[in-house]
Amino acid sequence: MIKKNFSLKNHNTLGVVVQANDCFFAHDLYSLQRVLHVYSKKKVQVIGSGSNILFTKNITGLLIKMHIKGIYVLKKQAGYVYLKVGAGVLWHDLVCFCLYRNYGGIENLILIPGTVGAAPIQNIGAYGVSLSDTMVALTAIHIESGRLKIFSKAACDFGYRQSFFKKNQSQYIITDVTFRLTLPIKHQLHTQYGIIQHTLNQMSLQNPTIQSVGNAIMHIRKTKLPDPQKIGNVGSFFQNPMVSQKKYRRLKKKNPNLIAYAIDAQHVKLSAAWLIEACGWKKKVVNKVGLYDKHALVLVNHGGATGKSIKAFAQTIQEDVKKKMTVDLKFEVNIW
Ligand SMILES: Cc1cc2nc3c(=O)[nH]c(=O)nc-3n(C[C@H](O)[C@H](O)[C@H](O)COP(=O)(O)OP(=O)(O)OC[C@H]3O[C@@H](n4cnc5c(N)ncnc54)[C@H](O)[C@@H]3O)c2cc1C
Prior knowledge:
Blueprint: E1 2-7, E2 19-26, H1 29-38, E3 44-47, E4 53-54, E5 59-66, E6 71-77, E7 80-86, H2 91-101, E8 125-126, E9 129-130, E10 135-142, E11 148-152, H3 164-167, E12 172-182, H4 194-202, H5 210-224, E13 232-236, E14 242-244, H6 245-254, E15 260-262, E16 267-270, H7 272-278, E17 289-292, E18 295-301, H8 307-325, E19 334-335
Parallel strand pairs: 2-5, 3-5, 4-19
Antiparallel strand pairs: 1-2, 6-7, 7-12, 8-9, 10-11, 10-12, 13-18, 14-16, 15-16, 17-18
Flavin-adenine dinucleotide binds at residues 13, 45-53, 66, 87, 112-115, 117-119, 121-122, 124-126, 165, 169, 173-174, 225, 228, 233-235, 334.
């Protein structure tokens, strides 16, 4: 059933007030294909939980809200388990399901908001692990033709917060994602981040398991990031910018405290949070928009901010960082 003039206030984690003229809750593949056929002349957009979208205006075309559920064990083979997961399953629920059954590989991605179907869009990642490490394939509907297509991992063209789908928005709707996860014999912990080691030690977990790594990361995230239920945000608003070694050396000379991570022989990733703080933005609030006090990469809605004012605030930061640091900050969030 199509819901008319549907309010999206509680369907985006920034808490922005907008509405969709026509909103369809997709609970199964068949009804989704039917509605796409009926609405073939309209612009179609899809959302999961709205935890990575900044709405700046009402949605006038057809909005699909993904609710296709189900977690299916396809097979267990050679120390691995293959799971096929509906696009509308909540990502955190999938991680908990896996930890409960002792399936490893996504525990570092615990507590990331959003749906499984949206996770490939920006190749979600945290604490040294990305979705692309365990995803093997996905199914998507081509919006224009209504045809189903299976994408291999290679066809998804994943990169840092990038994928084929992010580059080609509004062409496909992902309906399910298949993962290859480890059974205990193949478990491999990703605890290379100092903060994970430190937290495991603090929790007196000397022989960590995938469950204890999950718990440690949940603890870290709860102390570092604002809970969208309490304060509107979309996590990191900007990407950490990648620059050449040459540019990095020039910047470091001028800013000895600059935080950066080596990527390869030619490239360095700069801390966007450091750049923003260094430009003096940490405590500024404009039109009820500001930065989270514990993490300058997170823009927050202090209550009642509009999508347009959030975008304007972010653009002013972009311009200022460009002017003072000569670095381009790209949005991680999708602006609609
Ligand atoms: C507090 C907080 C912390 C976060 N931490 C992280 C983090 O650590 N790492 C990280 O990578 N991200 C993080 N995020 C961002 C966000 O959680 C992810 O990007 C998540 O995958 C978005 O899921 P969603 O269902 O909310 O997608 P939405 O915000 O609804 O949509 C995001 C984009 O995906 C598209 N999309 C959604 N579903 C589908 C589908 N089924 N088919 C095709 N396109 C689709 C939408 O059209 C849109 O372009 C965080 C966000 C918050 C609020």
